[in-house]
Design brief:
The structure holds 2 protein chains of 2 kinds.
Chain A: H1 11-14, H2 17-33, H3 38-54, H4 59-79, H5 86-89, E1 94-98, E2 101-104, H6 105-124, H7 126-129, H8 134-143, H9 149-159, H10 161-178, H11 186-217, H12 237-259
Antiparallel strand pairs in A: 1-2
Chain B: E1 4-12, E2 21-28, E3 33-37, H1 44-51, H2 54-57, E4 61-69, E5 72-73, H3 79-82, E6 86-89, H4 102-112, H5 120-130, H6 146-158, E7 164-168, H7 176-192, E8 196-200, E9 213-217, E10 223-227, H8 229-243, H9 249-259, H10 271-284, E11 300-311, E12 314-325, E13 329-333, H11 340-347, E14 358-360, E15 363-364, H12 370-376, E16 377-380, H13 393-403, H14 408-421, H15 437-449, E17 455-459, H16 467-482, E18 486-491, H17 494-500, E19 503-508, E20 511-516, H18 518-522, H19 525-530, H20 537-545, H21 558-565
Helix pairs in contact in B: 4-5, 4-6, 5-6, 6-7, 9-21, 10-20, 13-14, 13-15
Classes of the chains: A mainly alpha, B alpha/beta.
């Protein structure tokens, strides 16, 4: 499956996937809860530095990844002020109006905050996803997080089905077009098309899954409740250093923002 | 004591009326190399699955009898225990991987068995070296070629150190280069002499020197013949041909000649033997008068001009120009990734060609509406299931006619005609997905012909079929071609090309390397190897004989050889 992961040797690459995940998840929550732009902005900077320095991600690749995310955020920010409930912002200065369409300063501010928060959530996952091999992640889940290995490895095997099904899907559509199948407009046509492609796709998927299951059984998969691991994942002192260091730094940032009076309230309803 | 002992084995699958294997008994001695043959559906793969206990422990039902491998009863020992005695290499290289990386794949079985990780590194080195792909250790499995995948899959079996290795059509999904790689590996395993090998395969000529014994299953799931290869093919040859069982081509030729009264000093089963056996006869045979090359009508049906195409950075077609004449039986050949399918997709408008690059009967391609195109060109996909859009065989054929809004009585007449021609009339009410593979193939061709298209494109038409089904389909295609239809096949099967096509286009890396008569291509060894093609056994036989008897140079197929004898 196409993932963002690129093999390389760096501090982040060598860390246990779980420590990277434990850094990313609370951060994402924080971004969702923030009500002002400063906290997300500070963390976006921290994450970018982490990626470039600790993950040794090349600046060019980082910018290429950031580009589309920024576009998305900009698009959202441009649209959002017009979607905000007007009664919330009607007491702020009116910046621009065209008939019933009005742009208030308050609306623009909320849009900016929301845009930065979305950017923060999206990029929070990058230190994990850019430097983590999916097989290592499964290994760490099984070895450290005590996920049953049958579930972990079955998921890994299922990963490989996604590109296969994607290419099957496009072949099936081409084949149906050649038969002169017209896709009818509207949801009925879409539904009909889905039904027609579903049978050949399911047939292939089930056949493939049966074969893979036999091949895995034939190599003693699931025979014993425990198995050994050639690649042992460890939660080393460096993982603790990263995890605790990052959290400490994050707390410092929040304290700093508060002493500057920039830290707003965190609340759940702010999400939307 | 035999290493494999099968006693009165009867196996049944749920929801099937007939037993897949029926009272079958078989002993295999340690170190033997056994070739397992039989018509499709005779239970070869089923038999393979019984050897490591997958049957009955994962699928199927063992009704009667007993299977023992290395003395272990497969019903009493777990698949995990048996996995250390028997390794099975399956046909689909993609479906047998459990992980994403070569190294992970090799240790997968050992980890499941709870082996000590300390010894695994040495084991990985060992088995990857044994199959000759040590350099691939850190690769993702998705980046391997078909031949490499099968090698890695075999290495992952060898890691568990089984004594018995079973190969279930390991080359069926590979092109000729991948096939060569797997065969070389088989030869090496055999020469090391550590394993007992059981082989299911139908490309036989290159394997016969490795085989100690041939076991042929009959359609009822019992044993039809069992013995040394020469004896089986000599004595049972006609019966095997009758059933559509693949045989070495040289053995088929020997039977054909014998039927025509030619005495051979030795019944040949390998190319080397065939050279010796046929040499005296060839010396006296005179070649038939060269048939005048079948001239196709000069008017081009399809003309491709300087077509280029890229998938992202990957250049799939580079400046391709081909003129396909009306009435041609044209083969487009080349290895996987040569650009054959991409070219064909342009010919059907699946990938829209740039304006001016393709003309159909002189008419600019891009100006023909899609519906019109479907009426004029038929395209049969490699996997017939992809094309099925209805729930009965009858509707499947009638579908295209309904789309074109033909009157009902014409639809009924044409549909019946086609179903009868293709031997599918008795399945008219069945669901297309319940047909056998060969029947599905025929149905996909029939449904493509309903509109009376005069150009038919087929992607790998003989893929995955037994001898009889493949021959039947090609007979139909030749018949259509003789009626004046233009037939284009995409294939890497050079036997199909030499036996049927009047023209061949060889592609490699998106470029056309050769465009001309098949016999001419057969005489260009350098070009064949550039395009990663291998000649079929009989063409190689004549190349060997031609060093002494130059008149054999143009004798390339069974038909050519038989013509020699008259």
């Amino acid at each position: 499956m196409q993932t963002l992961y690129q093999p390389h040797d760096s501090f982040l690459h060598r860390l246990n996937p779980l420590s990277k995940l434990l850094v990313a998840l609370p951060q994402m929550a924080l971004m969702l809860l923030a009500s002002e732009p400063w906290t997300p902005l500070a963390f976006v900077t921290l994450i970018s530095l982490t990626l470039l320095v600790l993950g040794r991600v090349k600046l060019g690749r980082f910018l290429r990844l950031l580009g589309p995310l920024l576009m998305l955020v900009l698009f959202f920010t441009a649209l959002y002020p017009f979607l905000v409930r007007q009664s919330l912002v009607a007491d702020t200065p009116l910046l621009w109006a065209l008939g019933p369409v009005k742009l208030y300063q308050g609306g623009l501010y909320i849009a900016l905050v929301t845009g930065v928060r979305i950017l923060g959530v999206l990029i929070s996952s990058l230190p994990f996803s850019l430097t983590t091999d999916s097989a290592d992640f499964v290994r760490a889940l099984v070895q450290q997080a005590r996920l049953p290995y049958r579930i972990g490895y079955s998921t890994l095997a299922a990963f490989r089905f996604i590109p296969m099904l994607q290419s099957e899907m496009s072949v099936v559509h081409a084949a149906h077009r050649v038969r002169g199948v017209d896709s009818q407009p509207g949801w009925r046509g879409k539904l009909e098309q889905l039904r027609r492609s579903a049978v050949p796709l399911l047939t292939t998927a089930i056949r493939q899954a049966e074969r893979t299951a036999l091949a895995m059984d034939a190599r003693a998969f699931g025979a014993h409740s425990h198995r050994t691991y050639f690649r042992r994942m460890r939660f080393s002192h460096w993982d603790w250093v990263y995890l605790l260091g990052y959290w400490a730094l994050g707390a410092l940032i929040l304290l700093g923002l508060r002493s500057l009076g920039l830290l707003g309230p965190l609340h759940v309803l702010q999400i939307l | 004591m035999p290493i494999i002992e099968i006693r009165a084995l009867t196996v049944k699958y749920a929801r099937r009326k007939l037993a897949a294997l029926n009272q079958l008994s078989l002993d295999v001695q340690q170190g033997e190399t056994v070739l397992l043959l039989g018509p499709s559906g005779s239970g070869k793969s089923t038999l393979a699955l019984t050897l490591n206990g997958l049957l009955p422990q994962a699928v199927g039902e063992l009704r009667e009898g007993q299977v023992r491998v290395t003395g272990l009863d497969t019903q009493e020992h777990s698949v995990a225990d048996l996995a250390q005695q028997v390794g099975i290499l399956f046909q689909d290289p993609d479906a047998q991987f459990a992980t994403l990386k070569v190294e992970d794949e090799i240790v997968f079985g050992l980890e499941n068995l709870g082996h000590d990780p300390a010894g695994m590194d040495a084991r990985i080195q060992q088995v990857l070296t044994d199959v000759g792909v040590l350099a691939l250790r850190d690769r993702p499995v998705s980046a391997l070629s078909g031949g490499e995948k099968q090698r890695v899959a075999l290495a992952s079996l060898l890691a568990m150190q089984p004594e018995i290795l079973v190969f279930d059509e390991p080359t069926a999904n590979l092109d000729s280069m991948g096939t060569q790689q797997v065969f070389a590996l088989l030869a090496e395993l055999k020469s090391r002499g550590k394993h007992t090998l059981v082989l299911i395969e139908h490309k036989l000529d290159e394997l016969m020197h490795l085989i100690d014994r041939v076991v042929v299953l009959n359609p009822q799931g019992g044993i039809l013949a069992d013995g040394p290869p020469r004896l089986v093919f000599d004595e049972h040859g006609p019966a095997l041909q009758e059933l559509g069982v693949w045989m070495p081509q040289v053995a088929v030729l020997a039977h054909e000649l014998r039927r025509r009264g030619v005495e051979l000093s030795l019944f040949p089963i390998t190319l080397g033997e065939a050279v010796r056996a046929f040499r005296p006869w060839v010396a006296n045979a005179t070649p038939a008068a060269q048939q005048p090359a079948r001239s196709s009508q000069a008017a081009p049906a399809l003309e491709v001009k300087q077509l280029s195409f890229a998938y992202g950075h990957l250049q799939a077609l580079q400046d391709v120009s081909v003129k396909i004449n009306k009435g041609d039986f044209l083969a487009i050949v080349g290895a996987n990734g040569a650009g054959k399918t991409t070219l064909a997709k342009h010919l059907m408008g699946i990938i829209p060609p740039p304006a001016g690059s393709i003309a159909l009967h002189g008419e600019e391609f891009t100006s023909i509406p899609a519906k019109q195109l479907a009426r004029r060109i038929g395209y049969v996909f490699q996997n017939p299931e992809h094309q099925f859009v209805t729930e009965t065989v009858w509707d499947e054929v009638a579908y295209g006619l309904r789309v074109m809004q033909e009157p009902e009585d014409i639809i009924a007449r044409k549909t019946q005609e086609l179903l009868e021609t293709f031997g599918l009339w008795r399945y008219a009410k069945a669901n297309p997905f319940t047909l056998s593979y060969g029947e599905k193939r025929r149905l996909s061709v029939a449904s493509m012909l309903a509109l009376g298209q005069d150009v038919l494109i087929l992607d790998e038409p003989t893929f995955g079929q037994d001898e009889r089904n493949a021959t039947a389909l090609l007979d139909i295609l030749r018949g259509l071609n003789q009626q004046g239809k233009t037939v284009i096949v995409i294939t890497h099967d050079m036997r199909l090309v030499l036996e049927n096509a009047n023209r061949v286009v060889a592609m490699s890396a998106g470029k056309v390397l050769f465009d001309g008569a098949p016999a001419e291509l057969a005489g260009m060894p350098q070009l064949l190897s550039d395009a990663r093609l291998t000649l079929p056994p009989l063409a190689r036989l004549s190349a060997l004989l031609a060093t002494e008897h130059p008149h054999l140079r143009n004798v390339l197929t069974m038909t050519d050889y038989i013509a020699l004898s008259q």
